[in-house]
């Protein structure tokens, strides 16, 4: 687990709760998107991006999100979500996630969200603001690491 935690600058601890399990006795697939959302907001908070985004003009909007389930997770367990950035373009970037199961000592789920910057006043895509771009680049990792 230590190797997993050292891989990421930002990790988010998430406790699996009983109500997230489905009729088949493992965590329901939709729960992982909530875990990733929690990790995304934690990433924004820990990096200072949340305060940068307090300007109401520009907002990151999810274009799509994806999860790949590698191992079923059951209650009780604690997941550690490692978050990082890839594929930074002029108006978009990708946030990637790896979920590590404490009880299994293995990565159980991976995923990503493609995020597009949106100008709330014009209703159109916009370039990533320079102050935000500088922070994103600090957390950019090669996808093959």
Automatic annotation (TrEMBL):
- Gene3D superfamilies associated with the record: Hotdog Thioesterase
Q: What is its EC number?
A: 3.1.2.-
Signal peptide range equals: none
Q: Does the keyword Hydrolase apply?
A: yes
Q: Name one GO molecular function term.
A: fatty acyl-CoA hydrolase activity
**Origin, by domain of life?**
Bacteria
InterPro entries, alphabetized: 4-hydroxybenzoyl-CoA_TE, HotDog_dom_sf, YbgC/YbaW
Query: Top enzyme class of this protein?
Result: hydrolase
> Which Pfam families does this UniProt record tie to the protein?
4HBT_2 (PF13279)
Q: Which SUPFAM superfamilies match?
A: Thioesterase/thiol ester dehydrase-isomerase
Q: Which UniProt keywords apply?
A: Hydrolase
Does the record carry Nuclease as a key word? Answer: no
Family membership:
Belongs to the 4-hydroxybenzoyl-CoA thioesterase family.
Which PANTHER family does the record associate with it? Answer: 4-HYDROXYBENZOYL-COA THIOESTERASE FAMILY MEMBER, ACYL-COA THIOESTER HYDROLASE, YBGC_YBAW FAMILY
**Name of this chain's protein:** Acyl-CoA thioesterase
Species per Swiss-Prot/TrEMBL record: Pseudoalteromonas maricaloris
């Amino acid at each position: 687990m230590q190797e997993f935690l050292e891989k990421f600058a930002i990790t988010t601890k998430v406790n699996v709760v009983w109500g997230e399990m489905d009729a088949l006795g493992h965590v329901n697939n939709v729960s992982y998107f909530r875990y990733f959302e929690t990790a995304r907001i934690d990433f924004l908070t820990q990096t200072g991006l949340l305060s940068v985004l307090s300007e109401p003009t520009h907002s990151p909007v999810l274009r799509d999100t994806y999860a790949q389930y590698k191992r079923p997770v059951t209650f009780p367990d604690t997941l550690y979500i490692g978050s990082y950035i890839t594929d930074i373009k002029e108006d978009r970037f990708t946030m990637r996630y790896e979920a590590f199961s404490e009880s299994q000592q293995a990565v159980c789920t991976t995923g990503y969200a493609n995020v597009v910057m949106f100008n709330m006043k014009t209703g159109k895509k916009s370039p990533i603001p320079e102050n935000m771009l500088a922070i994103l680049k600090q957390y950019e990792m090669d996808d093959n690491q």
